[in-house]
Amino acid sequence: MHQYFLSARNAVLLALLAALAWLLILLHLLSPLVAHSKPQVHVAPIFMPQ
Question: pTM for the full model?
Answer without folding.
Answer: 0.52
